[in-house]
Every structure is written in structure tokens, then in C-alpha cells.
Amino acid sequence: MEAAVSACQRTFPAWSELSILNRQQIFLRYQQLIKDNLKELARLITLEQGKTLADAEGDVFRGLQVVEHACSVTSLMLGETLPSLTKDMDTYTFRLPLGVCAGIAPFNFPAMIPLWMFPMAMVCGNTYLMKPSERVPGATMLLARLLQDAGAPDGTLNIIHGQHEAVTFICDHPAIRAISFVGSNQAGEYIYERGSRNGKRVQSNMGAKNHGVVMPDANKENTLNQLVGAAFGAAGQRCMALSTAVLVGEAKDWLPELVAKAKKLRVNAGDQPGADLGPLIKGASLLLDGRDVKVKGFENGNFVGPTILGNVKANMTCYKEEIFGPVLVVLEADTLDDAIEIVNENPYGNGTAIFTTNGATARKYTHLADVGQVGVNVPIPVPLPMFSFTGSRASFRGDTNFYGKQGIHFYTQLKTVTSQWKEEDATLTSPAVVMPT
Length: 437
Ligand code: NAD
What we know:
Protein name: Methylmalonate-semialdehyde/malonate-semialdehyde dehydrogenase [acylating], mitochondrial
Bound molecules: nicotinamide-adenine-dinucleotide
GO molecular function, one term: methylmalonate-semialdehyde dehydrogenase (acylating, NAD) activity
Enzyme class: oxidoreductase
Number of strands: 17
EC number: 1.2.1.27
Function: Malonate and methylmalonate semialdehyde dehydrogenase involved in the catabolism of valine, thymine, and compounds catabolized by way of beta-alanine, including uracil and cytidine.
Largest sheet: 6 strands, mixed
Structural class: alpha/beta
Strand content: 15-25%
């Protein structure tokens, strides 16, 4: 691990001084290499993580989009100027890289989330220490090799493997200037506190309990299909999975149809054709619904079928804790205001959605739900990379978010230059001891 940080330190001066156009060219080649290797990256993800191949391709694709966006660094990294602040004096700012940055990733998006991290940091001129989840290292290893093939010099991106000790090493190492973390609250709060105490910038995207509020005026067929897809896709192991439905008013009667749609989903190994849900990354005990899924040919697999828990109350453990499996918990509310209260009383504020055909209802919900990402008739509103992935309350710590303009700000620091060039000789005749005004 020390050798990896040393390599980042050693290569930082040359990498940060390389022209920004050269770095841009490397990432332009990189995005093409990711496209060329998309199937192989997806295969590695399915092998290690279990999600279906089609879903794994989406995992790579959403990360690829961040790399494509990083290629516009020449616009994104522009500073500001204000000429003629006073006579013969101009002020301008540069955005400069920080130095060595580090990323700690979760298991659920083995390609996308590492790609939120090192491409944004490196295109700005930082060198990078990446720690993928110990459960899914394969995609990161291939992504690193592809970056090398794209022309990133040896030592600019370094991968370390491990769990707690590797994480603590990153939080404590004095050469590391910034940490990006995505994962659970247990790890994220520890990393945020320890890293911040050591003077580092930390951005920490954490757990979620995402609510889909279903209004009775919503398009029923569309809404139920979206809800089922967003609750059970990737076996519920998405931070933006819509794991909680709040059925408002007459929409309460739609529950039997929701259950019928969920029952139709096909559980199978991720690389089998037609699979809707793959296995979980680890065995889960299903406490409230004992449906016993056996998948032919994979009898010892960690499969859990779609599960729906109805009549859930806010004080139940299944509601308070993130389950991170194919489980949809369903609450009921009489009015939109009641639904908003439910959403805002939950500790998490990652994503949410409202399903409605009424613009005023949608607008009210968008403004009042204290949640980072809001979808209006969109069940998993993960922002595209020209925007930023945000989060509120227990779902995020820090103040600068992942990717988009915020990502550039996180990985750079401002330098403000004030310069004076006088045409005529205006030599000071005595020391200027008064604060300049
Ligand atoms: P995790 O916290 O178990 O692991 C994430 C990383 O932290 C791994 O690299 C792991 O090695 C390390 N780690 C794990 N436990 C640790 C500990 N006690 N101390 C120090 N380091 C530790 O998370 P996971 O199970 O891999 O991922 C699932 C979680 O990630 C869910 O809570 C999900 O909501 C969250 N997530 C959030 C977002 C988001 O953007 N908000 C995106 C994806 C996943």
C-alpha cells in the first residue's frame, strides 16, 4: 500500500504538468477502449457480482458516460477572470489538481462507481489510489489495464485490495489529499470522520431507503411496471432501488396487481438468458417471507425471489433499515402531505420518485421532499454526468458531490492570482502601510 502511494506521489508532478490537451486525449482513447471491452467488463461483473449480463452492461455504460463527460475537462476546468479591478490590475483563478486522491468503492456497481472516481480526478491532473470492493475486484483491474493501454503513464493509477486495514490506511496516510467513498453508512461515517480529522476532503455517498409515492391519478400500468422494475432489478442491490412504495388514497387498491407483476419476474443465474434477477452477493435470511426459491442447476445459489411486505409501519425494522435485496415494503398514506411526511421522517435522503399525471402535485413533491434525487414518473433518477449525483441527510456527507461540475470542484482547488502591470513608471515613493482599498 505504501508503494502504491509512493507511485502516486512520484508521478504527480509530471502528470499534473502534462498539458490538459494531452490528458484529454488519453481519456478520449480510454472511452473508446471501454466501449471496445464493454462485453468483457460486463462478463467479469456478472461472474463476481451476480447481476444479469444486460444489467452489467448498463453498469459499464453508466460509468462510460462519466468518462465521456470527463473528456470535456477543457471547458469544465476553466477558471474565472475579472479584468481591471483597479488601475492596471487583473484577477483570475486557476483550478489546480490536489495531488494524490483515493477512492473506496462498494460491491454493487463494480464498474460504474470506480468510474465516478478516478477518471474525474485524473483528468484534472491528480494521481489516484483506488480500492475496489474486495468482493468484486475484477472489473476495476481490467479498467486500470485499459487506462494504461490508453496511455496513462505507469504509476498514475494504483489499485490496492483489502477491507478495513486498507481503508484505515487511506484515511490516515498524510500524502492523500481527498477521499471519495461510496457504500454503507457504517463504513462511510467512519471514513468521513477519520479522513476529515486528518485534514482531507471527503465525499461520502451512503445508504438509502428510496420511496416511490404513487398518486391515484398516476398511469396505473406504467407506474406498476416501473415500480416492479425499480424495486427488483439488480435483485434490489442498487442504492437507487425503489425499495419502498407509498400508495396514496385509492392507489392502495393496486397492491394485488403489484404482487402479480412481481411474481412473474424470472430468478436465475445472471448469465442465463431471460433472467430478470440474479443471486445476491451473499446469502440472506429472509425473515418475513419464507418463499424458497430454487433455481435449477444452481441449487446452492444465493437466490431470493421478489418479496413484497404489505401494511408496513414506520417503526418496523424492515422499514427503518436498508435491506439491499429484492424486497419492496409498502406503506399507505391518505394524502400527498402524509406521504411527504413519511418520506422526510425516514433518515435517508438518497432518491425518490413520484408517479402522477398532475403537474402541481409533482411540483409540490419535488420542492418539499428532502431527498437528493427526485424522479417525476421516473423510478430511478440517477443523474447523467453533466449533472451531479447528490444525496441528503443520512445518505451523504461532505458538501461537494460526485461528478458533473461538483466532481471537478471536489478534485481541484482554486488559486486566485492578482497581478498588476503598469505601463508608465509609477514607483511607490514610500511603503504602503494602509490596507489597499
Ligand atoms: P460497504 O460499506 O460494505 O463497502 C464499501 C467499501 O467500504 C468497500 O470497499 C469495503 O471494503 C469497505 N468497508 C466495508 N466495511 C467497512 C468498515 N466497517 N470499515 C471500513 N471500511 C469498510 O458497502 P457495500 O455492501 O459494498 O455496498 C452497499 C452499500 O452501498 C449500500 O448501503 C448502498 O446503499 C450503498 N451505495 C450507495 C450509493 C450512493 O451513491 N449513495 C451507491 C452505491 C451503493
